[in-house]
Specification:
By secondary structure, the chain is mainly α. It is 74% helix and 0% strand. The longest helix has 40 residues, at 92-131.
């Protein structure tokens, strides 16, 4: 009788371990999904950092597009964190840090895209002026007029 109850307990423990193991595998698969988002974010940040250190600078339009992708990535990450925070035991510090980083990205994107819009507007104005015969000066402008006297004496 005692061996039968030990066998029942062992069978129950084994079944529990199998169920726990299956849920742990399901949990790790779901919890591992954030790694794709984090890797994509890391790649986008590396691209932004390399553009600031290389000789070929990124145009404002390219920077706006890059920070748009980064903002979209952050929105996806925040959505995933909110949905899986409890299940995947995500620390509050990670969630808060990710949210703060996302807020910074939004601010930077706003500024960069404003510069891109201004640059696009100025390029369009310059093209329009050049097409209307306004060229002649440096950079297609009307040119400088008048005179400029060089200072006299020892420099």
């Amino acid at each position: 009788m005692l061996t039968k109850s030990i066998a029942t307990v062992m069978a129950g423990a084994l079944a529990g371990a199998l169920l726990f193991g299956a849920s742990a595998l399901a949990q790790s698969a779901e919890c591992g999904e954030i790694q794709k988002t984090l890797q994509a974010r890391k790649d986008l940040v590396a691209k932004a950092n390399s553009a600031s250190t290389t000789k070929k600078k990124m145009t404002p339009q390219e920077a706006c597009a890059l920070f748009g992708k980064l903002q979209s990535n952050g929105a996806d990450g925040l959505k995933w964190i909110a949905a899986n925070k409890e299940w995947c035991s995500i620390p509050d510090s990670f969630a808060e840090g990710f949210k703060a980083d996302h807020t910074r990205v939004i601010g930077i994107r706003t500024k960069v895209c404003a510069v891109a819009a201004q640059a696009t507007k100025m390029e369009a104005q310059a093209r329009a002026q050049a097409q209307n015969g306004g060229g002649g000066g440096l950079l297609g402008g009307p040119g400088l007029q008048g005179s400029f006297k060089v200072p006299q004496g020892a420099l």
